[in-house]
Amino acid sequence: MSFAAVDVIRAKRDGGRLTGEQIAWVVDAYTRGVVAEEQMAALAMAIFLRGMDAGEIVAWTGAMIDSGERLTLDVSRPTVDKHSTGGVGDKITLPLAPLVAACGAAVPQLSGRGLGHTGGTLDKLESVPGWRAELSTVEIVRQLDEVGAVVCAATEGLAPADRKLYALRDVTGTVESIPLIASSIMSKKIAEGSSGLVLDVKTGSGAFMKTPDQARELARTLVEIGTAHGVSTTAVLTGMGTPLGRAVGNAVEVAEAVEVLQGGGPADVVSLTLTLAREMLALAGLSTVDPVEVLASGAAYRTWRRMILAQGGDPDAPLPTPRHVQVVEASQDGVLSTLDACSVGLAAWRLGAGRARRGDPVQHAAGILCHAKPGDAVVAGQPLLELHTDTPGAVPSALKALESAFTISADDEAPASTGEGLVLEILR
Ligand code: URA
Fold it and tell me: Is the pTM above the cut of 0.70?
């Protein structure tokens, strides 16, 4: 069935509901270049302003999946994946994928690169010498079967409509729309072929969704889309007001993930990894397996090593170190009461850990170590933050981003960052 693009735009502009046929046609015609960029820009703005109902969002997601291939993961273990909407210091995929694999599931984690202040999993892993992000579909399926976990770049054939539309939304002020964000995330994840999906929907200063209400609406929409498309989906709402763990950047986050896999690491990272692992195992029909025991046994760390080796990486090679380190000290005695995720993420990005434009390189050694977390007692002169970069000229602008990043209070009322309270709600 064929339509005039302008009629579809007018229908949404005037607050109407698009039919499944209109949606299938417009997404397909846009992917083929028949609907022009300016027409899709107008439609994206109309959707941004008018919204879409649940049926439209499910149909829009389906059309984006149909724009490319949907992988068939023919493996002997149950498949389950995790996706995070992105946060500062969010390295959870790195310990989580090998942990859940060591518990008996197969975790196909096809990821993107970072843009802006939240880092990308591939950029972090590329700080491991020799590690390769690009795998063919045959390699992905083989590694899933043999190792149980694969973290790699999404193949070109997955949801090409989303790649084109996301680039357009980026330059037309239409990113921050729940129907468009939800369909974008889910089209890629559903096309990846996993049977179960756990979504870590973040809220707070370092997240896309600044308020819990927005995050809850996104979470509900994501679960509805997954369920309608036959993927068992759970969403976990988590706080992102302060960085996760102590490391923000690339190599520093890999080092912290390895600490967790070796039985240590910050309490909040360990706690969130275990919460998400339990939800993934429940979807995979493996809820009798205890991820705490598997982590303590060293099996998850052994799977991490196999996962890195399978993609050409050397798990024993030293990680890159920065050419320049700058320390920010506490100005007074007291308790660190706040450490703002958005400011720390922005500072790490300015130090070179992230990129401003798609395709730019990142510095693998760049990032920030938080020597104190909210709730920690501090004394004047002690190191609070350690800034890592290969380009010392970037330090002044990073310091500017950190100007009001933290507060030290004289009393000791701030709660310690144990990971408790990080999970706000679980939607199934
Ligand atoms: N992440 C995505 O994959 N898509 C969006 O639209 C926003 C965040």
Answer: yes
Name the residues annotated as catalytic: 83, 162, 169, 184, 188
Q: Is 144 in the pocket of ligand 1 (CB under 6 A)?
A: no
Q: Which of 207, 171, 156 lies closest to 44 in space, CA to CA? A: 171
Tokens at residue 247, please? 């490391």
Per-residue pLDDT averaged across 349-369, rounded? Answer: 91
Q: What is the DSSP string of 163-225?
A: HHHHHHHHTTT-S--HHHHHHHHHHHHHHTT-SEEEEEEEESTTSSB-SHHHHHHHHHHHHHH
Cα 386 from Cα 209, distance rounded (Å):
28
CB distance 178 to ligand 1 below 6 Å: no
Same-domain status, 270 and 219: yes
- From the CB of 185, is ligand 1 less than 6 Å away? yes
- Of 256, 283, 316, the one marking the end of a domain is 316
Which of the listed residues 316, 345, 370 is the one where a domain comes to its end? 316
- Helix segments in 284-358, DSSP class H: 291-297, 299-310, 341-348
Reported as a single tens digit per residue, the pLDDT across 185-226 is 999 999 999 999 999 999 999 998 999 999 999 999 999 999
Q: Say if 141 falls within a structural domain.
A: yes
* Residues 93 and 209 occupy one common structural domain: yes
Domain, as residue range, for 9 = 5-51
Nearest to 235 by CA among 102, 121, 85, 98: 85
